[in-house]
């Protein structure tokens, strides 16, 4: 079994409840990078966060990141991944996989009949998945909600 200090705890995988909506205000102007103009701050409309984050409600999960192996892709511990199980895991995509009973987030690469799971943090070696190992792709990461201070 491959040791993964950055594995995803199964208790940190949350099922989206289809039909539940989270509405947030959308300001009609861009956020200034210079001096603020208070007159520009008014709400244009209310949008639903699900419309921004989710393409397929029935196949979407939220997963909390538990390690730093994907920090080169700006995925940090505590961030939330939006994972769509209906998206095809094509070469180069960031995915959540189940490998030997452990959930991990990696970039998937296909090398012939072998799957290689790549971290974006150079301190982690690639993981080579061989035929016959307990392996499946859980879903493709479609969005990252970054944890802020």
Automatic annotation (TrEMBL):
The segment(s) forming the Peptidase S24/S26A/S26B/S26C domain are: 25-141
Q: Which SUPFAM superfamilies does the UniProt entry name for this protein?
A: LexA/Signal peptidase (SSF51306)
Question: Which Pfam family, any one of them, does this sequence belong to?
Answer: Peptidase_S24
Top-level lineage group: Bacteria
The record ties this protein, via InterPro entries, to: LexA-like, LexA/Signal_pep-like_sf, LexA_repressor, Peptidase_S24_S26A/B/C
Please report the name of this protein according to its UniProt entry. LexA family protein
